């Protein structure tokens, strides 16, 4: 089972929820930090990293001896990553989407495989948790391939929690799609609600059951609750604003370890997620 | 003309609330909301849309079953596993590379350009604004960001406006790169937490990678004074100017609930308003924003 923890708006407490949830579940868990642009979960989990592997993607390299300058490679490239100047092919590797169309089309077999580093995958353990994170290389523009790499560490029998990137576009979609449940973390403010609505629409496109965690539940206004009722979205947990929670977070500590009374609350959140998935399955 | 891009790396640091407050304090500017994936600035500025244009992003493949002989060549060529065994393209997985289209022996694959969103030119009570809405689950956000920044520039040029204030997206990926390349300076709004510091360092590295001068503003600094001190030290070591420190104050959220900027919120603490106004003056007068592009070459910083 894979639970993705997502949010339309950034900074709503996604990482707080995913890390505290992972350490509160009474069975083996894998926690994947798929927010590869700004991976933060490790700061709270403090795992022992055992492996660090750079991840690469295909980019073309042109063998000038073989190339006849026909320009077919530049013609098939939809991403302007190749240009033919006279008889010479110029490669702009940072624009390449690794479709390998240039390699497939070249009549002279002049397109060879080169690589661009997407970032690094780190993995390690902390107590019963197997932790994997992607950390995107500074200057790299495309996060989805690295997100897919992180997700490849899941086995069908695993319980996986994914800390997804914020938003509703390709990075968030790549972290959420194919998961069994999306736990959406939001806050009851106009920004929080506006971005939540967008994220819920994205989850609908993916057809995944979804539930809410309302963080800082006593700030802002009450429109979020009306929206949740209207959409039939269960609110599985409310966390009130508390300066001491904010301070625990700011120091990189886990709420359930600093205030142990939170542990059973996060354990029950997991039970509620399992219940929601099962109820939905039985309806279908 | 100058462009200040306000970013944060990490979301939720108060970037958009501050952008709106600065918009209210500034004059002769153009506003640009480059956070096209989850645009929020309009919730505070209530733009009156004057012009609305479709954003055509990339194309997506679509197989016409009537013409398809099920030869399987397209599946072989698709590196994104976007074509199912029964020859249907999953539009969410399709990268829009068009390789299948080229190789299909029956020309059975259409490749229509997609409407991926909309962008708008609007008026607000604080000047013209360019903003956009990326469609749900769409790609090409970088392209849309570049497009609206260009529009903002054109408007600034036509109307003799000297400054573009751009609300940037979170993260360090394609929309952020598209937001900051070629800008005069970036302002990073950071909150004092281990993740705030971590994300600030990555976004500062990114700005340095593209040689864009960086200013730092610490928001909610009193939530962790030690961490605020650490951020100040690290910024100092890297030669980054801290333009100000703002205490945690519920007035930001209250103004947001009323759909107005902090500066328009009547119950806001006058000291807070003075502080934000002083910070804006500091930003406007900063070396990062005042220096001409040519002599503001920054070293690659790794803080
Ligand atoms: S398709 Fe091959 S031969 Fe033609 S220009 Fe490209 S690399 Fe050269
Ligand atoms: S792999 Fe695809 S995107 Fe990259 S250069 Fe070749 S054709 Fe262009
Ligand atoms: S390559 Fe063309 S004809 Fe062959 S299976 Fe694909 S769509 Fe059908
Ligand atoms: S356009 Fe590219 S990604 Fe889309 S189905 Fe065809 S080969 Fe696959």
Using brief descriptors, characterize the structure shown.
heterodimer, A: 284 residues, alpha/beta, Rossmann fold, Alpha-Beta Plaits, 2 domains, 9-stranded mixed β-sheet, two-stranded antiparallel ribbon, 11 helices, 35% helix, 27% strand, elongated, B: 303 residues, 11 strands, 23% strand, disordered C terminus, binds iron/sulfur cluster
Account of the 3D structure:
Helices cover 35% and strands 27% of the residues of chain A. Chain A has eleven helices and eleven strands. Chain A has helices spanning 14-24, 41-45, 72-76, 101-105, 144-151, 170-176, 190-206, 223-231, 243-250, 255-258, 263-283; strands at 2-6, 29-33, 48-62, 82-85, 88-91, 111-126, 129-136, 160-163, 181-186, 210-215, 235-239. In chain A, α1 (14-24) crosses α11 and α5 (144-151) runs parallel beside α6 (170-176). Chain A starts with a strand and ends with a helix. Chain B is α/β, with parallel strands linked by helices and 303 residues long. Chain B folds into two domains: 2-56 and 118-285, 3-Layer(aba) Sandwich (Rossmann fold), CATH 3.40.50; 61-111, Alpha-Beta Plaits (2-Layer Sandwich). Chain B has a nine-stranded mixed beta sheet with strand order 3-6-7-2-8-1-9-10-11, with helices on both faces. In chain B, strands 4-5 form a two-stranded antiparallel sheet. In chain B, α5 packs parallel to α6. Chain B is elongated, with a radius of gyration of 22 Å. The interface between A and B is large, with 58 and 61 residues. The structure holds iron/sulfur cluster (4 copies). One iron/sulfur cluster is lined by residues 60, 76-77, 79, 81-82, 96-102 of chain A. Chain A: It comes from Desulfofustis glycolicus DSM 9705. Chain A: It holds the Pfam family Fer4.
């Amino acid at each position: 089972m894979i639970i993705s923890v997502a949010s339309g708006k950034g900074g709503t407490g996604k990482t707080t929820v995913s890390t505290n949830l992972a350490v509160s579940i009474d069975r083996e868990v894998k926690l994947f930090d798929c927010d590869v642009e700004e991976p933060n979960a490790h700061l709270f989990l403090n795992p022992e990293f055992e492996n660090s592997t750079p991840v690469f993607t295909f980019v073309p390299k042109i063998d000038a001896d073989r190339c006849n300058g026909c320009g077919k490679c530049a013609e098939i490239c939809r991403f302007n990553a190749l240009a033919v100047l006279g008889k010479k092919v110029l490669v702009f590797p940072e624009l390449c989407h690794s479709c390998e169309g240039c390699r497939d089309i070249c009549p002279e077999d002049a397109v060879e495989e080169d690589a661009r580093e997407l970032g690094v995958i780190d993995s390690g353990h902390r107590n019963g948790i197997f932790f994997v994170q992607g950390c995107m290389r500074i200057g790299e523009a495309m996060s989805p391939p690295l997100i897919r790499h992180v997700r490849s560490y899941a086995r069908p029998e695993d319980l996986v929690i994914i800390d997804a990137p914020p938003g509703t576009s390709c990075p968030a979609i790549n972290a959420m799609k194919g998961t069994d449940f999306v736990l959406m973390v939001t806050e009851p403010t106009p920004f929080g609600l506006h971005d939540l609505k967008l994220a819920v629409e994205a989850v609908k496109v993916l057809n995944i059951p979804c539930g809410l965690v309302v963080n800082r539940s006593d700030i802002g206004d009450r429109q979020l609750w009306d929206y949740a009722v209207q959409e039939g979205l269960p609110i599985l947990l409310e966390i009130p604003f508390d300066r001491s929670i904010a301070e625990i977070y700011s120091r990189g500590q886990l709420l359930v370890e600093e205030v142990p009374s939170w542990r059973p609350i996060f354990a029950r959140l997991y039970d509620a997620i399992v219940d929601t998935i099962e109820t939905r399955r039985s309806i279908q | 003309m100058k462009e200040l891009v306000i970013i944060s790396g990490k979301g939720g640091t108060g970037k958009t609330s501050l952008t709106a407050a600065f918009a209210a304090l500034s004059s002769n500017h153009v506003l640009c909301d480059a956070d096209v994936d989850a645009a929020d600035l309009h919730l505070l500025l209530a733009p009156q849309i004057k012009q609305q244009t479709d954003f055509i992003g990339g194309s997506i493949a679509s197989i016409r079953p009537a013409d398809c002989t099920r030869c399987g060549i397209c599946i072989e060529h698709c590196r994104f596993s976007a074509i199912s065994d029964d020859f249907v393209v999953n539009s969410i997985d399709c990268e829009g590379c068009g390789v299948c289209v080229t190789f299909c022996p029956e020309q059975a694959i259409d490749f229509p350009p997609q409407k991926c969103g909309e962008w708008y030119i609007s008026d607000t009570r604080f000047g013209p604004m360019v903003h956009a809405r990326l469609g749900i689950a769409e790609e090409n956000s970088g392209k849309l960001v570049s497009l609206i920044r260009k529009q903002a520039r054109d408007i600034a040029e036509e109307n003799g406006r000297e400054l573009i204030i751009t609300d940037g997206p979170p993260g360090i990926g394609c929309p952020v790169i598209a937001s900051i390349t070629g800008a005069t300076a970036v302002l990073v709004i950071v909150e004092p937490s281990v993740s705030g510091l971590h994300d600030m360092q990555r976004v500062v590295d990114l700005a340095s990678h593209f040689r864009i001068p960086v200013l730092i503003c610490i928001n909610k600094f009193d939530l962790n004074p030690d961490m605020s001190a650490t951020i100040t030290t690290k910024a100092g070591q890297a030669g980054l100017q801290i333009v100000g420190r703002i205490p945690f104050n519920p007035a930001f959220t209250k103004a947001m609930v009323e759909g107005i900027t902090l500066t328009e919120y009547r119950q806001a603490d006058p000291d807070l308003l003075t502080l934000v106004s002083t910070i804006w003056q500091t930003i406007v007068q900063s070396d990062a924003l005042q220096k001409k592009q040519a002599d503001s070459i920054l070293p690659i910083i790794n803080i």
